[in-house]
Amino acid sequence: MSDENGTPQTPAGSPDPGAPAGPRPEPLRFFGTTWVEHGHGYTARRIAAAAGSLLAAAVSCLVLRFAYEGLSLADTGSFVTLLVVVMFAVCSALAFGHTWESFRKRPDPDRQASLRGLLAIGFVGSLLAYFFRSLTEAPGEALHRQEYETARAGHERRTTRRTGNPSKKRRRS
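Now predict its structure.
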């Protein structure tokens, strides 16, 4: 098959004949595979990810401020107000720690599912973790790079062939 320009097309699911054999890097959210070579706008994407997550965290804090004012207007009492503020602070701190740790090692899917509510409440912490990690690298880049390098080394080890004919090897006496 070929397109209107005459360029041959590969069927869906088959590997590209021009692509190198072996493992392929896993794309990161907002970065694709630009994290491998740090090309194709990687720096601009990091700046945009950092600015976007910081802006989202600021807007989220503004929304939480409106919720706090709503509690004050409802005159629910200082205990309820304090309880809500502490809840958001603790959940944000836990979400920050969990998100930060997930950039270094893959989280357990069962634990991730059980923490879904906590992470939803502490969304400001997750956004701040994303912001701080974007200042140094693409969030999750170190983990993905380590896994990719390990997969590439394993692939090279499996595909490296011996040189020479082993039957012509001199025997030691």
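The longest helix spans residues 42-74.
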